[in-house]
Amino acid sequence: MNKYKPVIGLEIHVELKTKSKMFCGCPAVFFGKKPNTQTCPVCLGLPGALPVPNRKAIDWTILIGKALNCKINEVSKFDRKHYFYPDLPKGYQISQYDEPIAIDGSLKLKIKNEKLKIEEKTFRITRVHLEEDTGKLLHVGADTLVDFNRSGVPLVEVVTEPDFDNADDVKRFLEELQVIIRYLGVSDADMEKGSMRLEPNISVRKLEVGSWELEERKKPQTSNHKPQTFLPKYKVEVKNINSFRFVKQAIEYEVERQIGILEKGETPMQETRGFDDKKGITYGQRSKEEAHDYRYFPEPDIPPMTFSKKYIEGIEVPELPNQKVERYLKLGLRYSNAFTLTRNKKLNDLFEETTSKIKVQDKIQVTDIANLLINKREFANLSSEELYRKLKELKSPKQFDEKLLDTTINQLIGVNKKAVEDYKKGKENAIMFLVGQVMGEMKGKADAKTVISKLKAQMSNPNLKSKN
Amino acid sequence: MKKKTLLSVENVEHIADLAKLTLTQDEQKKYKEQLRRIFDYIDQISKLKTKKVIETSHPTNITNIFREDKIDESKILTQEEALSNAVKKKNGYFVVKAIF
Amino acid sequence: MELTSLTLKEALEGLENKKFSSVELVKSHISRIKKFNKKINAFVTICEEEALKQAREADKLIAKKAKNALLGIPIALKDNWVTKGVKSTAASKVLDNYVPQYDATAIVRLKAAGAIIIGKTNLDAWGHGSSGEHSDYGNTLNPWDYSRVTGGSSSGSGAAVSAGMALVGTGTDTGGSIRQPAAFCNVVGLKPTYGRVSRYGIIAMASSTDSIGHLTKTVWDSARVLSVTAGFDPMDATTGKNEVPDYEEILRGKISGLKIGIPKEYFGKGTDEIVADACHKALKVLEDLGCKLVNISLPHTKYAYPVYAVIQTSEVSSNLLRYDGVRYGNERKMFGDEAKRRIMMGTHSLSSGYADKYYHQSLKGRTLIIRDFMEAYKKVDVIACPVWPFLPFKFDERAIDPLKMYLSDVFTAPANVSGNPSLSVPAGFSRDKLPIGIQFMGPNYSEDLLYKVAYAYEQETKWYLEKPKLKE
């Protein structure tokens, strides 16, 4: 039995894809631009410059908060967070401290547990707040080079409670969060490009032998009740996990590393560690113990914000992936198909658009569209018109050349005299042989019903010549 | 409990470190004395009856000042302008002493 | 006619009536600067060539009968006002080579009104000072007595206007830095309502108390400049959307019936008799003009300075973090003694374990001080009081003890804590011909009222006609 239980909380940063930066009118798109070409006195931190907040970024933060079932604070403000780093031009980051835009949310996920049964797990969201991104550092030989194009881009920070106890759940949560963010249209949320960043806080708890928690494990899980837990006295922050595929590896390595220390009867040091994806290990960076004294205080250059209930209600959350899945299940889709169709917004948009085209007379089901998209991935690149047409084609009576069909039937009746005789004698099955022959000649481009009726007509009236 | 502020040299060192100021030994001593005197004077603010008083961080009643999400070409600096006062620059970048 | 003795109003009239040209006006000021600045040290940078070029342009426009609020007028900008293409140092060695890439909004507006920048004036580095003794570019001497301070931090602007080197000297007032040099130099100094004038492009000292204003020879002159610089700025989220009234029209209005509050806390033991006397005489003039004098109390006055000191130094410590010598400026070790002290005061006030006791407590103290003023303004229209507790002092007299120096701000800092406007006007001289100033404070956005009261007083006393006798 496992003596240890990981305790993991997440800090996720999402870069918003607004047109302009958080506190100035510089373009927020900096990918591929020459260094220091998208800056102004504000985001460069020049003497005398002042920040003015981007309304859209604030609205989108409220949107993300609502999508994560948070309470949106009616009063919120920005605060200064002080620390020194070359990519931070003002020597402080404008962020949010004690009055963030959103708090107390949650995300429910259907996850396959160790027993391969689907259970619903709830992960609590502590807060969602808004801040500005820093510049970028480039290490070249003995120099460190700084580019401020990214400085000031809006960044939303999502912080969860330490509700995770394994890397798979973390990955699942991140994937769901990524899909939600993409559905909201507020960010590309791409880990490889840096528009979504993960910093897990990892500790490991030693479960005392004979403790009721170990006892609990013996009983079948009957509820989602989260027992009262004590948090370990330390936590390790892991940075630099640059891709989804490293999430599991980084977390599992770190958990093992900590267990190794705990086994020796020691306590892991509170610190920040980096992840080296080439070696697959975490390594010490700087101690989180001598934590920065951020000296937070309310940003004097920006008046506080107040959001009326009406304003908050006015920011509408579109149908989210998990809601779509529920709806699709009611429409008869299998869970796995419903899940797949909601993972990618483009695919989902195609699915939704195509289903909206369904006409009763076409006899096309929602499940038909789903199956087609899932089994024939190439169709995912079609437009909804093209896809619907394809479906009609596959479902509808086959189009065929009637002249050619008549000729073919004539020919085959002439050639297969025995079958015709058998049919006329009453052997109904003989017609099927002829149908097969016709279909073969027509290369399938005829529908069986029409072929049968024409054959019957021809055979009963030999004078019915093909219309040449 | 009213405690006299005892600013030690360690305090002053820590403060200077947070503020990225390097002080000589003499300066540390000097500032310790001066800061002690100054904060002894400032300590009288603890006499203010502030139990139910809210904080005023902004002296105006203004709230909700935003800008629309638009690009302002007129304020964007060229690369040359951005770097014009840099002490050290290279290929369009600012140069700092290597980190790590 | 001595062009450098003119007021801004007289200069505008003279230009309009073609009594002289802008080139002549600017040239006369530049000669005066060249003659006396080596001694007085009011200017860090003199923009002779560019100023004359602009003067020629101005003359062309004037010839075409173009009208503009400050067309052809030589003005001086405090060197913490970021000026595109012109070295802007904040009088600190940290920025001794900084040439800004943009203009402050207030400068954009002044230029748009036709003003000509004649130079950048000296100040206590970063605005940190009340005397003018803390510039990294040397002391500025008081034109009235070279052995005495001008007052700070807008020391250069005070001296420049007083000595006839410029018709306007701009400034910043964070704890008294416009009103103090105005009072010591016999000129008019306006600290507008916080948010009345944009702070965009003004090197930040204390973000929640920095007020952007100016020094001039007369009240009308001050009103003219404010009508140009005031108003909402989308680049500064703390500027107010209040309309800008017609100050020049309003200041001529009658003041009889106006209630003037006299706060007892400003006239106690700490105030030199001669200063209190001068203020009382001024108040008598106003009483004779029909104003009603009302005794009031601002009970939290003695806490105003320490509350101010904590808030100001906390914000200073934050605002000065950007000076790391990477994108501009020199290394942090070039900070002067006063800057270092304030940075440390502020860092300590915000640091973990102390922030509640100092920073947060001060924000609460601020609320109490604002309430004091709001209560007072229910009873009176304006409040009158001294600017300084004493006369212009000699160099080193107060500078040797930082705390002693800080306490010079006790009468000016309260208006910075509350954000209210305050106007310092000449109120006479001591026997040794040392200037004394009186300040009129009012509720937010009452600059028009302050101008009205001050104008009436000024027209009765005309202290501005006195000029210092300059020695080279």
From TrEMBL, chain A:
Organism: Candidatus Roizmanbacteria bacterium RIFCSPHIGHO2_02_FULL_38_11
Catalysis: reaction(s): L-glutamyl-tRNA(Gln) + L-glutamine + ATP + H2O = L-glutaminyl-tRNA(Gln) + L-glutamate + ADP + phosphate + H(+); L-aspartyl-tRNA(Asn) + L-glutamine + ATP + H2O = L-asparaginyl-tRNA(Asn) + L-glutamate + ADP + phosphate + 2 H(+)
Annotated protein name in UniProt: Aspartyl/glutamyl-tRNA(Asn/Gln) amidotransferase subunit B
UniProt xrefs under InterPro entries: Asn/Gln-tRNA_amidoTrfase_suB/E, Asn/Gln-tRNA_Trfase_suB/E_cat, Asn/Gln_amidotransferase, Asn/Gln_tRNA_amidoTrase-B-like, GatB, GatB_C_1, GatB_Yqey_C_2, Gln-tRNA_amidoTrfase_suB_CS
Root EC class: ligase
GO molecular function annotation: asparaginyl-tRNA synthase (glutamine-hydrolyzing) activity; ATP binding; glutaminyl-tRNA synthase (glutamine-hydrolyzing) activity
Keyword Ligase: yes
Gene: gatB
Subunit note: Heterotrimer of A, B and C subunits.
TrEMBL record, chain B:
SUPFAM superfamilies linked: Glu-tRNAGln amidotransferase C subunit
This protein's UniProt keywords: ATP-binding, Ligase, Nucleotide-binding, Protein biosynthesis
EC identifiers of the protein: 6.3.5.-
Molecular function as annotated in GO: asparaginyl-tRNA synthase (glutamine-hydrolyzing) activity; ATP binding; glutaminyl-tRNA synthase (glutamine-hydrolyzing) activity
Highest taxon in the source lineage: Bacteria
Enzyme class: ligase
Pfam families the UniProt entry points to: GatC (PF02686)
Catalytic reactions on record: L-aspartyl-tRNA(Asn) + L-glutamine + ATP + H2O = L-asparaginyl-tRNA(Asn) + L-glutamate + ADP + phosphate + 2 H(+); L-glutamyl-tRNA(Gln) + L-glutamine + ATP + H2O = L-glutaminyl-tRNA(Gln) + L-glutamate + ADP + phosphate + H(+)
Keyword Glycoprotein: no
An example Gene Ontology biological process: regulation of translational fidelity
Signal peptide interval: none
InterPro entries: Asp/Glu-ADT_sf_sub_c, GatC
Function: Allows the formation of correctly charged Asn-tRNA(Asn) or Gln-tRNA(Gln) through the transamidation of misacylated Asp-tRNA(Asn) or Glu-tRNA(Gln) in organisms which lack either or both of asparaginyl-tRNA or glutaminyl-tRNA synthetases. The reaction takes place in the presence of glutamine and ATP through an activated phospho-Asp-tRNA(Asn) or phospho-Glu-tRNA(Gln).
Subunit-structure text: Heterotrimer of A, B and C subunits.
Family: Belongs to the GatC family.
Name this polypeptide is given: Aspartyl/glutamyl-tRNA(Asn/Gln) amidotransferase subunit C
Species of the source: Candidatus Roizmanbacteria bacterium RIFCSPHIGHO2_02_FULL_38_11
Name of the coding gene: gatC
From TrEMBL, chain C:
Catalytic residues of the enzyme: 78, 153, 177
InterPro entries: Amidase, Amidase_CS, Amidase_dom, AS_sf, GatA
Catalytic activity: L-glutamyl-tRNA(Gln) + L-glutamine + ATP + H2O = L-glutaminyl-tRNA(Gln) + L-glutamate + ADP + phosphate + H(+)
Record organism: Candidatus Roizmanbacteria bacterium RIFCSPHIGHO2_02_FULL_38_11
Keyword ATP-binding attached: yes
Molecular function via GO: ATP binding; glutaminyl-tRNA synthase (glutamine-hydrolyzing) activity
NCBIfam families: gatA (TIGR00132)
A cellular-component GO term for this protein: glutamyl-tRNA(Gln) amidotransferase complex
SUPFAM superfamilies, per the entry: Amidase signature (AS) enzymes
Function: Allows the formation of correctly charged Gln-tRNA(Gln) through the transamidation of misacylated Glu-tRNA(Gln) in organisms which lack glutaminyl-tRNA synthetase. The reaction takes place in the presence of glutamine and ATP through an activated gamma-phospho-Glu-tRNA(Gln).
Name this protein carries in UniProt: Glutamyl-tRNA(Gln) amidotransferase subunit A
